[in-house]
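Course assignment 3, question 2. Fill in each field.
Student: A.L.
Task: Predict the tertiary structure for the chain below.
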Amino acid sequence: METAGEFARRIRERIRWVLETARLGATFSAKMKLVLGGVWLLLNDTWKSNLRFAAEIEQFGRSLPFYFEDIGDFGLFCEIFRTSSYEHLLPGTAEVVVDLGANIGVSALYFRLRYPEATIYCFEPDPANLRRLRAQAAVLENTRVRNVALWSSNGTLSFYADPHRGSLSAVSPVYDRQQEIHVQARTLGAVLEDESISVVDVLKIDVEGAEEEALVGFEEFDRIQVLCGEVHADLCDADAVFRTLDDHFDVVEKTPMGIDGRWYVTACLSSGPSGRRADEPRATDHAYG
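Answer field:
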């Protein structure tokens, strides 16, 4: 049972999400739409309203629409657009972006605004997320969506989908309301081969605990210029993931997410696609918790 204090903190956090996301509105009208729409979705968070609205999001001197349906969307915007701790190591230009765990398309929108000429490949196994991701990709151009989970082998995988909020779906059962489904699984090597991708400028990973399975057995990290995303130490062996990254990249940075056992991570080669060299020292701290 949620206490009054916990309820108040949750509401304050969601109000912050709305206000922070509203700052990304391309116009005053878009900002107001984000505030009013966010408040409505917050008030109706215990039951799913039929509200769906588009607002123009501006970043990097460009704007594109995003379709909002859930108060959790605002949390994703804060995480990806407002508080991202790996942004400074991303390359100045990119031709190929691979988004593993693309969710509803917030990260795809970010990459499209940042890299307007890139081809973006989005991989997402959750059916509810996939519906929204496909709708969002339709307005992003040159963005390809695949209904695939990343794993250590090819085949069929048990996946636990949260019908209320897709961001809580995972390869492991964590919440009572998750429902077991079966999804197509591919290795990272198979995914790159399927799409005929020789070099990945940016690989983003947010696969809710499948990082170890997706990354540890992969042998071709020299094809990836920059890797960024999340590592969930509460759901996988984070030490194994970070050892793998340390073995294959010149720079590895990690930052606590503020959630027990979860980290933002960026790993890059010494020379990225733009020829820029990273001048930060190689990470040596293995206290990943």
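Instructor remarks: The chain has eight helices and twelve strands. The two ends are 29 Å apart (CA to CA).
Grade: pending
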